[in-house]
Design goal:
By secondary structure, this protein is α/β, with parallel strands linked by helices. It has 14 helices and 24 strands. The protein has three domains: 204 residues, FAD/NAD(P)-binding domain (3-Layer(bba) Sandwich); 115 residues, FAD/NAD(P)-binding domain, CATH 3.50.50; 111 residues, FAD/NAD-linked reductase, C-terminal dimerisation domain (Enolase-like, domain 1, 2-Layer Sandwich). Strands 1, 2, 3, 4, 5, 6 and 19 form a seven-stranded mixed beta sheet that branches. 45% of the residues are buried.
């Protein structure tokens, strides 16, 4: 049988592409070497949120007296948290599997290698079997970056150095946890394990946490973490990992932090090794597959979606890339835009961001107006929050009075930021947003409130 489409990788981009293609009546083969759902569902987005929800529940219970609720001896049963996390993952993986069956997608659990092409299409070997398809989507995802730090790889082999995959499955809370990297993964795990009782130290090479996040937002987040007891070592370059200490250099010289476990979370890189891309001439750059706005590679009929193209390593970006890809395969012209991709840090407090930051707007020479408001402008925020340091920050194009960026820290930020993304994507003017009726009382009302400051 010659398939209409072979999809390599069963993560968010891969399985959604397969689902949409199947819905449209195409014959689809999906090849996934591990579990359906990919890193997001099995080792990232979903399991980490299950842990963080437990931590948030415990955090609220610990300060319950501020709300007139008395809870004594609050603690986290980590084994129970992991057990619940596993159940959540199993439920959702089963749901993806059902979607594949419903849309008549054939799933093969093997490692895929592209062999070449024939007159009938592209040839992919999965296990001991070769399959052929007229079109090919590469959705092989990403893997954790493991830098050549002396002792790191040895520590990983010996089990005391962990990546995002292993940290989610440990059954005991480490007394001392050192996290290398202060990005999203590092911060979310710092949040959970701090709440669970670990002494957490974050070692970050930059002079700030949370990468490209708006500076005002990351400063508030840093202060919140410090209040909770997380130790930060910024502008610190890790030079060695022994079996007892993480050693790093700062302006003050050589320093060391003892640990029971080390989490390496300094980013991810596209997973393209061993795929056989060279066998059909797919162009790559530093390991990432190069794509155009239609998600097509330099080879007609070959597409790439998700982390493997390295543009925006977020599950929801992969979803949209998959839709764009399938639409173009079906002859419906669609293009991928990256100017309004929201990002969230699911800590407590939550961070939600979309669009330009103050720094990026200046770098691009944009003529903008910038306004900040405290979330205390929301009655619901005041009624529900014990910490009153949440803010919203908006970047507006002065000439057209359209919104270019929105950045928040505080409760419900993850659920509000999509509205800001719609405003940016739709190029809504400030005056247009002022006319929208927001429900009251909600924290989201600050999104309308701040428009009257512009």
């Amino acid at each position: 049988m010659i398939y209409d489409l072979i999809v390599i990788g069963g993560g968010p981009g891969g399985y959604l592409a397969a689902e949409r293609a199947g819905q449209a009546g195409l014959s689809v083969l999906l090849v996934e070497k591990r579990a359906l759902g990919g890193v997001c569902l099995n080792e990232g987005c979903i399991p980490s949120k299950a842990l963080l929800n437990s931590a948030k529940t415990a955090d609220y219970a610990k300060v319950g007296s501020k709300y007139g609720v008395i809870a004594e001896n609050v603690s986290i049963d980590h084994k129970a948290v992991v057990k619940r996390k596993d159940k959540v993952v199993r439920t959702l993986v089963a749901g993806v599997s059902m979607k594949m069956k419903k849309n008549k997608v054939t799933v093969v659990n093997e490692e895929a290698v592209i062999q070449g092409r024939s007159a009938d299409g592209f040839i992919v070997k999965a296990g001991e079997t070769e399959y052929t398809a007229k079109r090919l989507i590469i959705a092989s995802g990403s893997v954790p970056s493991m830098p050549p730090i002396p002792g790191l790889h040895e520590g990983y082999k010996n089990g005391f150095v962990l990546t995002n995959r292993e940290i989610l499955d440990i059954t005991e809370v480490p007394e001392k946890l050192v996290i290398i990297g202060g990005g999203v993964i590092g911060l979310e795990m710092a949040s959970y394990f701090n709440s669970a009782g670990s002494n957490v130290t974050v070692v970050e090479m930059l002079d700030h946490i949370a990468g490209p996040t708006e500076s005002d937002i990351r400063t508030i987040l840093l202060n919140n973490y410090k209040k909770k007891g997380v130790d930060f070592r910024l502008s610190a370059k890790v030079t060695e990992i022994t079996d007892k200490e993480v050693i790093f250099e700062t302006k003050e010289g050589r320093q060391a932090v003892p640990f029971d476990k080390v989490l390496v979370s300094i980013g991810r890189r596209p997973s393209t090794e061993g795929l056989g891309l060279e066998n059909i001439g797919v162009e790559t750059e530093r390991g990432r597959v190069i794509t155009d706005e239609y998600m097509q590679t330099n080879i007609p009929g070959v597409y790439a979606v998700g982390d493997v193209n390295g543009v925006s390593m977020l599950a929801h970006t992969a979803y949209r890339e998959a839709e764009v890809c399938i639409n173009n395969i079906l002859g419906k012209r669609d293009i991928m835009r990256y100017n309004a991709i929201p990002s969230v840090i699911y800590t407590n407090p939550e961070v939600g961001c979309v669009g330009e930051t103050e720094e990026s707007a200046k770098e691009k020479g944009l003529d903008v107006e910038i306004v900040k408001l405290p979330l205390t402008y929301s009655g619901r925020y005041v009624a529900e929050s014990s910490e009153m340091d949440g803010i919203i920050k908006v970047i507006m194009n002065k000439k057209y009075r359209t919104i270019l960026g929105v950045h928040m820290i505080g409760s419900y930020a993850s659920e509000i930021i999509y509205g800001a993304a719609m405003m940016i994507e739709s190029e809504m003017r400030v005056e247009d947003i002022r006319q929208i009726v927001f429900p009251h009382p909600t924290v989201g009302e600050v999104l309308k409130e701040i428009m009257w400051e512009l």
